[in-house]
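## Example record

The block below lists the input lines for one assembly entry, exactly as stored, with component labels intact.
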Amino acid sequence: MTDSYVVSIDQGTTSTRCIVFDRRGNLVSVAQREHQQHFPRPGWVEHDALEIWRNVGKVVPRALAQAGIVAGQVAAIGIANQRESTVVWDRRTGVPVAPAIIWQDTRTDTLVEALARAPGAEDLRQRCGLPLATYFSGPKLRWLLDHTPGLYERAERGEVLFGTMESWLIWNLTGGPDGGLHLTDVTNASRTMLMDLRALGWHPDSLAFFGIPAAMLPEIRSSSEVYGTATAVLPGVRIAAALGDQQAALFGQTCFAPGDAKCTYGTGSFLLLNTGTEPVHSSHGLLTTVGYQIGGQPAVYALEGSIAITGSLVQWFRDRLELISSAPEIETLARTVDDNGGCYIVPAFSGLFAPHWRSEARGVIVGLTSYITKGHLARAVLEATGWQTREVVDAMNADSGLELTALRVDGGMTANNLLMQFVADVVAVPVVRPMVAETVSLGAAYAAGLAVGYWPDLEGLRSNWHPAARWVPKMDNAVRAEERENWQRAVERTFDWIKPEARAANE
Amino acid sequence: MPGQVQSITRAAAILRLLASSSGRLGIGEIARSLDLAKGTAHGIVRTLQDVGFVEQDKTSGKYQLGAALLHLGTSYLDVNELRSRSINWADPLAARSGEAVRIGTLLDGKVLVVHHVFRPDDTLQTLDVGSLLPPHATALGKVLLAYDVGAANAVMQGEPEPYTRRTLVTARTLSRALTEIRDNGWGAEIEEMTLGKAGIAAPIRGYGGLVVGAIGLSGPVDRVCDAQRHPRPALVAYVRDAARAVSRDLGAARW
Ligand SMILES: Nc1ncnc2c1ncn2[C@@H]1O[C@H](COP(=O)(O)OP(=O)(O)OP(=O)(O)O)[C@@H](O)[C@H]1O
Ligand SMILES: [Mg+2]
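Predicted structure tokens for the full assembly:
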């Protein structure tokens, strides 16, 4: 018998990656391609969904070639994706009707404010587990329906389809206009605000609240089951999993038991805590979301602390300020100084997400003096990620009534030693990175492999998890307390920056 | 006299031209100044851009000397970038071999540990990124010395510390070992630093074959070596595969 493998597609915010995994969950090959970020106006972020689909067609064959395998050796494909980002496309031509609106995009801020005052807003929140915010797909979809002439009528007639990236990719992989399957999974659906968190179906009241025609919505399925067989890119291979990237990372970190938590450090950073088969509502600014659902089993829920800007602050430092030429160089620059020199950066570029949820906040750099060098700024960039982590960990501890005893981490920023040490220092618990840093992809592969029997059960997967690195807190308590207070004062200075009139005028 | 390599002469001319010009230059200007076909000039400039000697301005599309030229004497690959780019390959090496993995570069005659992956046995281990190892008594160090004549000479002219009776301390034994490493493309260390311990390492190469670091595993001698005290061929193959995978990624465009 020739060896078989599982292939994952990680359609992220900045890039699309294909990774081939072997039976022991080891990475065999990886191919990656970035796509264009479009910022047509302040606060707007768009992607070209067709470019992303083309990139899938490029990275998958490259990863297979690098691994030296053929489609016949692939047991299943699993998909993980950037969440909430909204695509609407023509069912007949397969062409998107508008650029995809990305999760960081804040164009819906006035819409969201108006909706928050509308009757039914509190019921909606209870039903979907999410606060009304620009972040989620529902408002973005409503915006597209409002701003694209004739779109609402076409949606009612079922001529155009809505989906987040996994729906868009699955539809294209299974034939597109030619019989493509239009579906989503519970984790992605739980980010639209349109799904009933307990019943795991679209809720008519939620659709009515946003004014969204049901005909354009995908069918909701579990995260781990055979959805269909690919006819493009990897013809004949079963597509057997789809999860939002953060939920995929939770799965890849084998956080299968209630109380297990992980934080993934990519473009943004996301702390998720498994709360078992009951959704837990937060009183500290966390989201309630679906963690995963395996086939017909009960769904597993999670509490989530979402941080919008972490790795993307490093990218901003690299691409917009041009102070470094690659992301990892930020560590080299930060090590040219011993501390932040009194400087703090709060990257409220898209407002602040958890636990504040302030869409009118904007970023600040405070504590500037003539003493500050670019080294101090580099430190402040990294420290912003550390303190934002601390904020969501505090919220998580308060909501769950449990004290986190160690933090499982993954994602591109975990290659940064200075940062990981800082996270351990400010959260004051050990930080542990597992043997596979690409946990998003691993989770999608695990879910797909389980669905087709490539891996037998969760226990087996858990035994693949080993610590690859561990950072222990070293910071003095008094220093931590002082720095924490400075951070909190810096955060307060971001609030109320966008004036209500300005928002109305921007509309 | 051996013939000149034309494209290198032309590349040198392009660099001189850019250095003497007061502003940035477009491809057309470069081609006209040197009387080259535009396609030829473009090919050379693109290659110089790939290695960092030339930079293109995003808005005008014109060219200037790259920052890498100003730092020719220092290492061209940032150590933190080396870690970021190798993390995906160091992990599977540890998982497959069952041993701890380290990546190192030379810093002031010592091996700087740039990256460290724990042995995948769930025991408590301490991250030693940033620590310094002796180059003559570790597999990582010997591999790095094998491709750095200056550093190797400095070690041999100094007085290499004998950690065990197997430590290579004479210029003759050390230089023979380094030749062997270059011939094989990998190196090992067996109880040369600590009794009962052994290691295997291979070079990580950047563009043009430049050695920018070494990746290796280490562990108990009876696990790393077979009954004849030879490094186990399967482990050697894992180390070399990982080194090749990182090298292949480094040869690609910067990100
Ligand atoms: N060594 C480093 N130090 C600091 N930041 C880093 C480092 N390496 C990568 N990053 C940052 O991490 C991010 C890339 O991480 P990763 O590849 O996990 O994210 P991603 O999966 O591309 O994100 P997304 O899924 O949202 O597209 C980038 O924003 C980059 O700036
Ligand atoms: Mg990602």
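Chain A has two domains: 1-306+402-474, 311-388+490-498. The first strand of chain A starts at residue 5 and ends at 11.
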